[in-house]
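queue> pop job 88
queue> type: inverse folding (structure -> sequence)
queue> payload:
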């Protein structure tokens, strides 16, 4: 197994930093605001108004509003809550809206001057849009069911008997919302704007993933020179059931929609051995645009069988035409890294460890991409099934 040298990363890690706030969704019902001073994490505030099972956070940096999506496992449907942010980190609920379908798990903000809202993926097989003008004004605009799977997927006895959209992702053009559907082996493509009402999503032909792969999350990438254009766009798709990451070249046909051409595929473990119990989690491009990081859950690649058991984070260098070069695995800091996020500089990663019920911050070398030691850790939620779900930085 190729692994990073933690000592080498630690040697180049942190310089003195001013305190920064982070927000963490805990599946135990708590939304927490934390302060990180470069060495330790401390709790500023906790709030339980998001709902019984906070699962996803969206930080709208334009309006300085934090949106908290509640999966609502103990209620008929989920919900969304809005919190205006301030430098103090205090959590004050501004509004709360019940959704009309179960299992919301991810959201992405979209819109323009005429409409602003959020597309929400529901694991139960639905998509919703919520419109908002400000933190105190939210309204459910659209709720639609995805078409049932025919025939059933290869894992029909497990998780492929109905659609299971798992993420909402805005494309670089700002006109399309993508939703990887683990149940249907698709990436749903939806458009808003000139070809539809601004507040309504219209479905276009999807990306068809490998049967039985179970698409979970995706990330867009462009060479730096093409940013703010629709040229040379690539999509990296992480599949949970077969632990692969596939790269697609993206194009926009004149008659609408999106086209995807597969250019490469590799394991989320790179050249390391795939662990049969593992399932890919989050996938993100680093702030420097040079590396792709993927979390592997339930693999126990580090210190397996001990109290310090840890799943892994895999790092790949991104080359020309989105070619991936495996750089190594690093400890995620605990079990079930459901989500992670980079700070603005890219020298820290906040990892939400669901089964370990904690959030950790790891050192990271911005030059080599190597992920290092735990710099700070804090309990979040209750192990093994009500832990940390999602973390965002307020920078």
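queue> result:
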């Amino acid at each position: 197994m190729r692994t990073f040298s933690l000592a080498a990363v630690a040697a180049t890690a942190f310089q003195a930093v001013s305190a920064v706030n982070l927000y963490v969704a805990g599946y135990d019902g708590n939304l927490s605001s934390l302060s990180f001073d470069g060495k330790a994490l401390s709790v500023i505030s906790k709030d339980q108004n998001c709902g019984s099972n906070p699962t996803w956070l969206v930080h709208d940096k334009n309006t300085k509003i934090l949106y908290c999506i509640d999966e609502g496992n103990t209620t008929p449907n989920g919900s969304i809550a809005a919190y205006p942010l301030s430098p103090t980190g205090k959590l004050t609920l501004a509004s709360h809206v019940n959704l009309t379908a179960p299992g919301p798990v991810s959201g992405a903000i979209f819109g323009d001057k005429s409409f602003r809202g959020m597309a929400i993926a529901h694991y139960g097989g639905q998509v919703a849009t919520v419109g908002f003008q400000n933190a105190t004004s939210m309204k459910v605009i659209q709720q639609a069911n995805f078409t049932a799977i025919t025939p059933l997927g290869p894992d029909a006895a497990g998780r492929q008997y109905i659609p299971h959209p798992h993420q909402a992702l805005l494309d670089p053009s700002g006109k399309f919302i993508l939703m990887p559907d683990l149940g249907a082996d698709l990436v749903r493509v939806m458009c808003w704007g000139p070809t539809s009402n601004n507040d309504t999503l219209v479905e276009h032909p999807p990306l068809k993933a490998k049967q039985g792969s179970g698409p979970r999350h995706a990330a867009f990438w462009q060479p730096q020179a093409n940013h703010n254009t629709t040229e040379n766009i690539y999509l990296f798709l992480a599949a949970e059931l077969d632990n692969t990451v596939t790269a697609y070249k993206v194009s926009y046909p004149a008659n609408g929609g999106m086209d995807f051409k597969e250019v490469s595929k590799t394991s989320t473990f790179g050249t390391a051995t795939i662990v049969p119990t593992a399932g890919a989690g989050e996938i993100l491009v680093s702030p420097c645009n040079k590396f792709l990081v993927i979390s592997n859950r339930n693999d126990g690649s580090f210190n397996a069988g001990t109290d310090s058991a840890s799943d892994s984070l895999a790092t790949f260098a991104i080359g020309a035409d989105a070619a991936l070069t495996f750089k190594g695995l690093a400890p995620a800091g605990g079990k079930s890294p459901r989500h992670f996020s980079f700070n603005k500089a890219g020298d820290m990663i906040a990892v939400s460890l669901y089964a370990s019920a904690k959030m950790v911050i790891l050192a990271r070398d911005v030059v080599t991409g190597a992920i290092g030691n735990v710099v700070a850790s804090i309990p979040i939620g209750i192990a093994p099934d009500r832990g940390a779900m999602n973390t965002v930085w307020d920078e």
